[in-house]
Design goal:
Strand order of the largest sheet: 10-11-12-8-13-14
Radius of gyration: 45 Å
Number of strands: 19
CATH topology of the largest domain: Rossmann fold
CATH class of the largest domain: Alpha Beta
Number of domains: 5
Largest sheet: 6 strands, mixed
């Protein structure tokens, strides 16, 4: 199997990623496994591991979270179980029982939620729910880690005798203590404990008065510690029983060890399963920390389209310092296989190179990467790098000699399945000669259909990228006012090195810069100046466009506000006019009524008053009726006009529907039958997922970060499973 060169791993600081990921493993064994990971080139294995990590990562955000998988290292017991008559220790049995219980929990869970975690469930296919190990261990060892009294009839009998004998020892000692204390043979402390035995603290002058075994004396010699004779005999008997107890425990543990020997293959699979679960958990937690996800993996048309891609180590470092990290957009495809990145120093060219390389290594190790969800990726059989100062004092090689040796290796290995990353391509020698050599090597990589990114300051390489159809220029943008990098990669145009501008910014005297300009060819200066001017113009156009867009949005917002305000003002004016007219009518009526009242007070005639009032009321009623009739006529006319318009629209819609039906009859094709593995999306959606299972006209669709259940009628086929390799 082809492996990624160690130099590539060193150049891209892959080991640091492993150290960060290992911190999320919950067992020491898991940390060791993570630190030993290597990128793989087998696409099937890589995809399987990526799916597992993606499924585990998705479990953090749903209700069916994968249970705890903490376990003990039982691998040292495997060799002992292979040796006949060997006996495991008590703690070993408890570890085996705990691991089995953890495995049973995971096996049950994965069997229940196989639809949600199909790839992880595949790890447990060879395992089963083992129901004998834990009850057997629990029948021998209690929760305190001691062998149970009822582990065997013999042990039960021995321990019962020991318990009775301890009672007798305590009784006989207390009797002797009372006897010799009354005789005043004992010191004030009366008793002590030596070698786990109770002894009498006898005054030295009375030591011959007390029969028993002398166990020791005090430092001054004034006290002699004696175990009473009766107690001593019983203690020896107890020691015999303790020996018999130990032999019986060995026998029980030996039988328990023999019980486990046939389970050795199962235990080895169990240990490997739990270790793999810890590894996947560590990758998923690391992905959660980085905001990593699984991009679409392209196979037929190999393509890299990293959108808003972050360098993982830089992202973590900046997060600790509370600093922003600039994402990059990088694209490689068959039409643009090689990208030549140019621009000023300290503009982010090398970081862009390392970002692509490190994300590729992570992806081929089964890790999710910090990119936008619309990103695409591909897998490569070889990832070759030449980054940094590779001067080798040990081998007496200069920087350029080492780089030439490295290029020789590239030329031997480079093919259509290779991704190469070269920083400062061609440097270390005479610019013209080194540039020419770099150009022919780049042409060779191009002819071999390899994918790659290079950074350079050489104009001939920028020109070559413009000439070859599957090679493209790119540049790191530079703020022409502040002369500071903006860490944004722009595809499609070469970049200026801003050599003199950067020198000027760093305080070099103007006369030296002008003398330097005179030293080089006028065409070179003009070419570099043209590139710099184009970059400045592009930057200015982008800023102008952004400014115009902001102004357009502002004008639109203000226009909407003005329209709303005008509508409100018109409504208020209409309301005020109606109120004014109403008030005028009321004033006129009031005046008329006032005149009638004055007249009545003058002549006191009721009949003319009532007649005039009735006339006024009839006149007002007639006006209201006319107004109501006019409004009704207007409403009827509007309604009639609206009905006619609706009828016309209905006629048009019906005609269009008939045309559509005729077209559908001619063009319509039978809807494809969806099967497991098809890539699909909702008719009104953009996200593409794969069908994991189909049940009762409903599909379980896996979008990578989550899984959902959708009716088959709502799904549209994007890519058939038959075409997926």
């Amino acid at each position: 199997m082809v492996s990624i060169p160690e130099k590539t791993l060193e150049d891209l600081e892959y080991d640091e990623v492993l150290r960060q990921c290992a911190a999320f493993a919950i067992t020491p064994m898991g940390k060791e496994v993570v630190l030993g990971l290597k990128p793989q080139t087998d696409s099937e294995q890589v995809m399987k591991k990526l799916q597992m990590t993606s499924e585990y990562c998705a479990s953090f955000d749903n209700e069916n979270r994968i249970p705890n998988h903490g376990f003990d290292d039982i691998s040292p017991y495997f060799q002992l179980l292979k040796i006949e008559n060997s006996v495991l220790e008590l703690e070993a049995f408890r570890n085996l029982a705990r691991n089995t219980e953890t495995t049973n929990t995971l096996v049950r869970f994965l069997a229940k939620f196989k639809t949600y975690y199909p790839s992880i469930s595949g790890l447990a296919e060879q395992l089963y729910e083992e129901k004998q190990i834990k009850p057997t261990v629990d029948g021998v060892i209690d929760r305190f880690g001691e062998v149970r009294n009822d582990a065997s009839d013999t042990l039960y009998s021995i321990r019962k005798q020991m318990q009775q004998l301890r009672g007798k020892i305590s009784s006989s000692f207390n009797k002797a203590l009372s006897q010799f204390s009354n005789a005043d043979y004992l010191d004030d402390i009366r008793e002590s404990v030596i070698e786990n035995r109770r002894v009498l603290a006898v005054k030295a002058m009375y030591r011959r008065k007390v029969k028993g075994a002398i166990m020791g004396s005090s430092k001054t010699g004034s006290i002699v510690f004696i175990e009473p004779e009766a107690t001593n005999a019983q203690t020896r008997e107890l020691q015999n029983l303790e020996f018999e107890e130990g032999e019986e425990i060995k026998k029980i543990l030996s039988q328990l060890t023999d019980f486990f020997r046939p389970y050795l293959p199962y235990l080895e699979m169990q240990h490997a399963f739990l270790l793999e679960m810890d590894l996947i958990h560590a990758k998923a937690r690391y992905a959660q920390e980085l905001g990593g996800l699984l991009p679409e993996i392209t196979e037929d048309q190999r393509q890299i389209a990293y959108i808003k891609a972050f360098h993982p180590l830089l992202l973590q470092a900046h997060k600790l310092e509370n600093r922003p990290t600039h994402p990059q957009d990088i694209q490689l495809d068959p039409e643009n296989r090689i990208v030549v990145i140019s621009g000023p120093n300290a503009g982010g060219k090398s970081i862009t190179l390392k970002t692509v390389g490190l994300l590729q290594l992570m992806l081929q190790t089964g890790m999710l990467i910090p990119v936008h969800e619309s990103s695409k990726a591909a897998l490569f059989g070889q990832i070759l790098t030449d980054i940094g100062d590779n001067q080798s004092i040990e081998n007496h090689l200069s920087t350029y000699s080492y780089r030439l040796k490295n290029m020789k290796y590239f030329l031997r290995k480079c093919n259509a399945n290779t991704l190469f990353l070269i920083d400062e391509f061609g440097t270390g020698s005479d610019p013209e000669l080194g540039g020419a050599l770099a150009e022919v090597m780049l042409e060779d990589f191009y002819e071999r259909k390899a994918f790659g990114l290079i950074t350079t300051h050489y104009s001939n390489l920028k020109a070559l990228a413009n000439e070859l159809p599957a090679m493209v220029n790119a540049n790191m943008q530079f703020d022409n006012k502040t002369l500071e990098p903006v860490f944004k990669l722009v595809m499609g145009e070469a970049g200026s090195s801003f050599t003199f501008e950067v020198a000027q910014k760093n305080g070099l005297p103007f006369n030296l810069i002008n003398r330097a300009k005179k030293k080089i060819e006028r065409g070179k200066v003009r070419f570099d100046a043209t590139i710099a001017k184009l970059q400045k113009e592009r930057s200015a156009m982008m800023k102008t466009g952004k400014s115009l867009k902001e102004k357009e949005d502002m004008v639109k917002t203000e226009s909407d506000k003005m329209q709303t305000m005008n509508a409100k003002l018109k409504a208020k004016l209409t309301s005020y006019q109606e109120l004014f007219d109403q008030n005028q009518r009321m004033i006129v009526l009031g005046n008329k009524v006032n005149e009638l009242a004055e007249r009545y007070f003058t002549n006191n005639k009721k009949r003319p008053l009532i007649a005039e009032l009735l006339r006024i009321v009839e006149t007002e009623n007639a006006k209201r009726k006319r107004k109501t009739a006019a409004v009704a006529r207007k409403d009827r006319a509007q309604k009639k006009k609206l009905d006619e318009q609706v009828k016309k629209d209905l006629v048009k819609v019906r005609k269009e529907k008939k045309k559509q039906k005729k077209q559908v009859k001619v063009v319509e094709q039978p809807k494809p039958t969806l099967v497991v593995g098809d890539q699909v999306r909702l008719f009104d959606g953009r996200s593409v997922g794969s069908i994991d299972a189909i049940e009762k006209q409903k599909a379980i669709v896996n979008y990578g970060a989550f899984t959902t259940q959708v009716s088959l009628d709502l799904l549209e086929l994007v890519k058939s499973a038959k075409k997926v390799k």
